[in-house]
Amino acid sequence: MKFSPLVQELIDSLKCLPGVGAKSAQRMAFHLLERNRRGGSKLSQTLALAMENIGHCEQCRNFTEEALCEICQSPKRKIATQLCIVETPADVIAIEQTGEFQGRYFVLMGHLSPLDGIGPDDLGLDILEKQLATGQFTEVILATNPTVEGEATAHFIAELTQTHDVEISRIAHGVPVGGELEYVDGNTLAHALSGRKNYSF
Amino acid sequence: MKFSPLVQELIDSLKCLPGVGAKSAQRMAFHLLERNRRGGSKLSQTLALAMENIGHCEQCRNFTEEALCEICQSPKRKIATQLCIVETPADVIAIEQTGEFQGRYFVLMGHLSPLDGIGPDDLGLDILEKQLATGQFTEVILATNPTVEGEATAHFIAELTQTHDVEISRIAHGVPVGGELEYVDGNTLAHALSGRKNYSF
Ligand SMILES: [Zn+2]
Ligand SMILES: [Zn+2]
C-alpha cells in the first residue's frame, strides 16, 4: 500500500529540492493539497517560467531572464573600471547593499572543487578572460569566500589575471564590525592582527 | 538591488512550502537553476497535475485522483465491518504496513483544534455519520494520535458514534515493542500499567 499514484509522484518530485527528504516532501505535499492549492499552482507556473527563461548574463554570468543583467545594462556600470569576482548571486546582492561598490561583477556560480569535478571551465573563467582582454578594467577585486575553496579559487584567478595589465586585490579579512574580540575565531583574529594598519587620527 | 524579477518570483513562490524561509527558498532556487532544471520542470508539471486533479475519496476522505481511493475500491474492503478512524493519510499507510487490518478507513485530515478554528465540519464528520448510518460497520476503531488533540478528537467521535449501533474501541497505549522501560515517558508507563492484561501462557 502506497499513496495514490499522483500523490506519490508529487512527493517524489518535491524530493528534487535540496535538503528535502521523504518525510519533508510528504509534509509539503499534504500542506499544499490541504491548505494552499493556490500557492502550489502559482509555484508550478513560476517554476515552468523560471526553468525555461532564466539563463546567465552574457557578461557577468549572474542569473537573469534577459541577455544582460540589470547591473551590466546600467550605463554607469558599462564604463566601470573595477571588476569584482564573487561566488554566488547572493554575494552580488550583499555587496550591492553596502552601497560601496559601483563597478561590475563576475559571478563564478561556485568555486573550484576538484573532488566534485568543478574545474575552471565550470566557473566560466574563459568568459572572464574575454572580459579582461577588452582592457576596460584596471582592477580585479577577488571577493570569493574566506574558505579553503574560496581562497584556492581566488589564488587560481589571481594567477590567470596576472597575464593582463590590471591591479589585483583581495577583500580584507578581519574582525567583523560590531563583533566582540572574545567571540572571534583564532584564524580570523590572526588575519586581523597581521593585516593591521597604522592608526589614522 | 534585488535578484532579477523572475528569479525573485521563483524564490517568493518557493516560500509557500512549509518550513521554507527566505534563505532556504534562495538556496532551492539556485540549486534548481544551476544543477537540476529537469527536476524543476518535472516538479512544475507534477504540481500542476496534483493541484488540479487530487481530491478526497468520497468515502474515506483520503487523498486520491479518483472518486474512490484504492482501498475503498477493493472488493474485500467494500464489505468490511470495521472502520478505523485516523488523522492523516500517512497513518493509513503506517497501519496498512502492519498487515493487521483488513477493514476500511476514515481519514480526518487533522484533529479538532478550536484555537485554529478547526471544528467537526472540517474533519468531515458529517460524511462519517453517513457511513455509520448505512449500518455496514459493527466496530469503529479510534486510531487518532495519543496527543491531547488526538484524545479530544477521539472522545468527540466516540460520543457521536454512540448514537449508532456499533462497538467503539481505542488503540492501546503502552510501552513500544522493543523499547526499554527506562526510557519510556511516565505518562506512557502509567497507561501501560493501568492497561495491563492477564499474562497469557
Ligand atoms: Zn551581468
Ligand atoms: Zn477511500
TrEMBL record, chains A, B:
CDD domains: TOPRIM_recR. It holds the Pfam family RecR_HhH. Residues 81-176 form the Toprim domain. Keywords: DNA damage, DNA recombination, DNA repair, Metal-binding, Zinc, Zinc-finger. GO terms for molecular function: DNA binding; zinc ion binding. One of its GO terms (biological process) is DNA repair. A zinc finger (C4-type) spans 57-72. May play a role in DNA repair. It seems to be involved in an RecBC-independent recombinational process of DNA repair. It may act with RecF and RecO. HAMAP family: RecR. Belongs to the RecR family. This is Recombination protein RecR. It comes from Cognaticolwellia beringensis. The gene is recR.
